[in-house]
Amino acid sequence: MARYADSLEAAARERLPEEVYRYFAQGAGDGVSAAEAEAAWGRLRFLPSVLNDVSIVDVSTTLLGAAFASPFALAPSTLQRAAHPDGELAMADAAARTGTLLVVSSNAGTPFEVVGATGVTWWLQMYVTADRALTSPVVDRAVAAGARAVVLTVDTPVVGSKRPGQRSVWDAVDPSWLRVNFPDGEVGAGKAPDLGPQDVAWLAERWQLPVVVKGVLRPDDARRCVDAGAAAVWVSNHGGRQLDRTVATADALPGVADSVRGDVEVYVDGGVRRGSDALAAGALGARAVLLGRPALYALADDGADGVVRLLDELRVELVEGVRLAGFGAFDGLPRSLVQRWSGAGPQL
């Protein structure tokens, strides 16, 4: 049977206006990092364990104390209403139906209150603005609507340059699909180019919520996040949309996980397309794997039902992978399960 996930990009390309599809699909610069993300997971190989009871396999997990059906979670993304009229509401519906974590962009085109009313467990992704006073009302509104954590994106002092098409996405979308949770007159607030550890501490102290730092690739930076008070670090290169030729997240994950030594949770995104990718990520130290483009494409294909179908398919694949690897649960997978393949043979 054909995988639903394999059909999604083509379906989205057919359904969406060209400039919207290009906005979702393209990476920065020459697109090197965006193109390498999926292949980096494909270079990993497994060393299964045998003679273990795998009658029951549990792929549920907890993230910052909340329980979820699997480690797959929905990453934040801008212009979800350009993918489907229901946008973030459809994503929230799908997440609620499948017991999945939803991370909502501060650029969202749906009011936080509408997202929160679905009952989904959700976190706010935040770009801290150059004027910190403009950040506060957005976080206040999200917290009032039920956000359980703040995800601070730290890899975007400016937006990475993309190759232009004949028509800009901004010529094709309704302005109401963007940043509706910012107070009137503040939609032009620029991103802060001077982020520092003090911003992690400020967010944690000001709102008394866990702070997740997204966009971490270096072990030393991960350690700085922990020391600043982060509750989790999120290994991400922004889908290859910032500095091109940035290392793939599959390659960065082990070093980051080793550097934090279990002091905080570690998450990863970028190129995750299969249950086996999540299996590898779990063995390399990730507690959650976040879906960006695949979820957007599923949303474009069939709204909330498409996202549910994608999440269900990936969860089934992960259950099979954990069982065939010889383990009874996703949580606690050992590093020894994974080897990196050089082409000539495994690298231990």
What's a concise summary of this model?
The protein has 348 residues and is α/β, with parallel strands linked by helices. It has twelve helices and 13 strands.
Descriptive overview:
This protein is an alpha/beta fold. The two termini are 34 Å apart. It has helices spanning 4-15, 18-25, 32-42, 80-83, 87-98, 112-116, 132-144, 197-207, 219-228, 249-260, 275-283, 293-325; strands at 44-46, 61-63, 66-68, 72-74, 102-105, 122-126, 150-153, 211-216, 232-235, 265-269, 288-291, 338-341, 346-347. The chain has a single domain (4-325), classed as TIM Barrel (Alpha-Beta Barrel), CATH 3.20.20.
Shape: globular
Structural class: alpha/beta
Query: Could you say what the CATH topology is called?
Result: TIM Barrel
Helicity range: 40-55%
CATH architecture: Alpha-Beta Barrel
What is the N-to-C succession of helices and strands?
Answer: HHHEEEEHHEHEHEHEHEHEHEHEE
Number of DSSP-assigned strands: 13
Whole-number tally of structural domains: 1
